[in-house]
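Recap quiz, item 2
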Amino acid sequence: MTRPPPPSNELDVLLRKVARRDAAAFAAVYDLTKSRVYGLVVRVLRDSSYSEETTQEVYLEVWRRASEYDSRKGSALAWMLTMAHHRAVDRVRAETASSARESRYITVSADPPRDLVAESVITGDERRRVIDCLDTLTDAQRQCIQLAYYDGMTYSEVSQRLSANLSTIKSRIRDALRGLRNCLEVP
Amino acid sequence: MTEPNDFELLELATPYGLDAVSREERAEIERRVAAAPRPLAAAFEDEVRAVRETMAVVSAATAAEPPARLRAATLAAATSGDKRQLRWRAAALASAAAAVVVGAAAFGVGVLMRPHPPSTVAEQVLAAPDVHTVSRPLGNGTATVVFSRDRNAGVLVMNNVPPPSPGTVYQMWLMGAKGPTSAGTMGTAAVAPSTTATLTDLGSSTALAFTVEPGTGSSHPTGAILAELPLS
């Protein structure tokens, strides 16, 4: 089940209340965003118990830092997902630093780029639209998004993995994002 | 004026916005942006913003429902200031007595994020010299209260208690000389395989009782008492 993206101004209003320690507003923020936050975290971590812990940490950070959110600098959803991605990536990097996890990591990273969306149950227009836009990217571009965003690799690691030079990878990542942005009509 | 170095910094905005840089690179990039001429810094921030907004839209493709129990745990953890609730609850599954020991240890290390976290009700109860634990069956599961008379508070842990029927709630009552006082309700959504709740102001109550009540709860118990945990 996926909701449509939460209306940004609704989340803005709720976050201002959360900043004043309004528990009901916090519960509403959770309900509106939980599938986006948890879905992203579990996509990166691929482990449900780590993902629950990390998702909880994300919301505790939202609770503590709601007063720092500035709607002029971006949407509330992007603010929250930035925190979620950051925490998930920190965790996946900490784990892959230990060699015991390395084999799992390589297996995961070797997934075909299409895998980006394959596990998702396709429901709703918003998801359909995103998947259509991902399909407009080249395989090489999708692979870069997979490695650099969902697998938590740095762009240098991506360049090593793909045996491509750094500037190639940087421009491939940039082109992928530009393509997605235009297709999704993100201002 | 855009110099080659400036262009290189701008090129890093996309990987930076995607978190595809190492911790060291991140710090270095932030230092350079802070020192950069205003228009360059603005262009960098604009690209980072666009990357993050784009990926926020893309998150529709990876949306997935978290387990229902995470909601209650997260809301409780935020409002009680206890960021280790999940781990504590996991420990509580083993046994109530073990939960007290393991939980106390977890709280001991659960201060990584903030130098001086406020002491939570659960921490205070677990640290109390007169901490007591009492368990009773409830439904097919178990309700356990860890409480302290000194702290005038307790923590309820419910394991494998089935949620109440839709349209009803579990209501907790502190039983005392003056009759039952409501200690809160739990609706269908709030009851997960493992659920916690905080009890404050135990007062002179002698037991914690559970009933099923219609709607959002009652001012007095109207249903049969399903379980009664003596607070002594």
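Helices of chain B lie at 4-11, 13-17, 23-35, 38-58, 69-80, 85-94, 96-109, 121-127.
The radius of gyration of chain B is 25 Å.
End of item.
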